[in-house]
Amino acid sequence: MALTDARALFQNLEVATAAPAEDQRLLGQLADWCHRYSPLVAFDPPHGIVLDVTGCDHLFGGLEAMLRDVVTRLRKYGFAVKAAISGNAAAARALARFSRGGVFSDVGDDSILRLPLVALEIEETSLVGLKRAGLRELGDVAALPRAALTARFGEAVVNRLDALFGRAARPVSPLRMVPVSTAQRRMAEPLIAMEAVEMLLRQLGDELFSSLEERGEGAREIEAAFFRVDGQVRRIAVQAGRPLVETAPFFRLIGERLSALSEPLDAGYGFDAVQLAALRVERVVHRQTSLDVRRETASGIGALVDRLSARLGPARVQRSLAVDSHIPERAFSMMPAIHQTADEALARPRFASDGYRTVGDPPARPIRLFQPPQRIEAVAGLPDGPPMQFRWRRVLHEVALAEGPERIAPEWWRDNLDARARDYYRIEDNAGRRFWIFREGLYGRDHAPQWFLHGLFA
User: Which intervals of the chain form a coiled coil (predicted)?
Assistant: First the structure.
């Protein structure tokens, strides 16, 4: 009703401004909290949460004990909650909203048949039509022929009945990635001391890696979830560049991650549940590496990358990745170093020019590139002679040695009509400094070719 009418009826009416965004944020926090019961948690609009608890009830002493634990905890936090467990999500939603709730093992029992017509959650016009026909409960509608229902009220009523009675599947789309394997502990008394939390993490790590070992897999990403007594959930993820198969390296990485947190892990009134989940795994192939120096070196570098990524963040520790392009500034891209595989760690990026150079030759590409290339003034012979001298940053350099040109054509398929061919030269001046210089444009064909310094050799 209108607010003025409500105030006329209730003189001491308490009014609060609606905040849908805050409601949704709080619902998201509750959904995150519900992961202590099942990894498959999803929203059930407008104000519900649905869990797929298949195979999880034995961890809580059965379905009745699980439901009782959920309701009791949420009510302690100050929420008014109704909950039901049934054979499918649609039936559980209807029983939770339009009955007293509880555990209903059979979706075809009398509890669903006795639900009011509003449990169909169909359009108002169809609902009014069913009531005018003298129908009061779902059992009355379910007893009617399907063809007559479809012809009179459309397919929405029939589809809804199929969902309620489990004849049509309604899969749960989880909010978070479903872990491959998990290890969890629920404590009778909350853990407050961090020493006890670390000991528990070691025990959970042993359980998690034991289950992964049976599958012949190692963990590339592990998430630790800490459930506090007050309902707050803290998640800390650890990634590794190589599959982790033991607790010791994982514990070193989680220690680095915890020590680098901007907001330290706070137990508050204590953690009543801790969970380790392997989110990404990889098949582990055991190899003898004691005689392979390259693999031993790659293993040491991989461990260093894992520790740096755990402390600084994966996005801050990057490596170059070769890209199939002749344009130097596009010939590589950067990606988190922790995402590389074991084979990529041993591979050496190759360029087209490698096949024309032998051991001991100077490098074809400089170590340092300028982006964008820096404009210079150069004096060179026409049409394709190397520069004899050039001025860079107000300093004049006399060329002693020059090699080139190496012509690189523009990538015409990128629809860049202004791009011109480049002639690259490797230059050494009188002081022994080496530069990588190119001329953009060709004399006699392009208008006003220009010279640029693109890189410096070590």
Answer: none
Contacts of 144 (CB under 8 A, 6+ apart): none
The per-residue pLDDT of the chain, averaged, comes to 86
Walk me through the domains of the chain, giving residue ranges and CATH numbers: 19-164 (no CATH), 185-306 (3.30.1490.100), 368-456 (no CATH)
Q: What is the phi-psi region of residue 270: left when phi exceeds 0, alpha when psi lies from -120 to 50, beta otherwise? A: left
Pairing of strands 217-228, 271-283: antiparallel
Q: Determine the average pLDDT of the residues in 150-171.
A: 86
DSSP string, 188-246: EEEE--HHHHHHHHHHHHHHHHHHHHHHTEEEEEEEEEEEETTS-EEEEEEEEEEEE-S
**Nearest-angstrom CA–CA distance, 135 and 128:** 10
Q: Which amino acid is at 110?
A: D
pLDDT band at 315 (very low <50, low <70, confident <90, very high): confident
What 338-341 contacts at long range (C-beta under 8 Å, 24+ apart), as own/partner pairs, is: 338/239, 338/240, 338/241, 338/305, 338/306, 338/309, 338/314, 339/241, 339/314, 340/241
For the chain, what percentages of helix, strand and coil (3-state, to nearest 5) are there?
35, 30, 35
Residues facing 275 on adjacent strands: 184, 225
Interatomic CA distance for residues 128 and 112, integer angstroms: 20
The conformation of residue 385, written as its DSSP 8-state character, comes to P
Q: What is the pLDDT of residue 383?
A: 87
252 in Cβ contact with 307 (< 8 Å): yes
**CA–CA separation, 66 and 52 (whole Å):** 12
Q: What is the pLDDT of residues 416-455, one digit of tens each?
A: 667 889 999 999 999 999 999 999 998 888 888 999 999 9
Count Cβ atoms below 10 Å from residue 407 Cβ, excluding itself: 14
Cα 289 to Cα 42, 246, 249, 296: the distances in Å are: 45, 18, 18, 6
Q: Which residue has the tokens 């129908």?
A: 135
Q: Residue 149 in contact with residue 133, Cβ under 8 Å?
A: no
Q: Which two tokens stand for residue 352?
A: 């087209």
Beta-carbon count within 10 A of 281 CB: 20
Pseudo-torsion of CA 154, 156, 158, 164, nearest 10°? -170
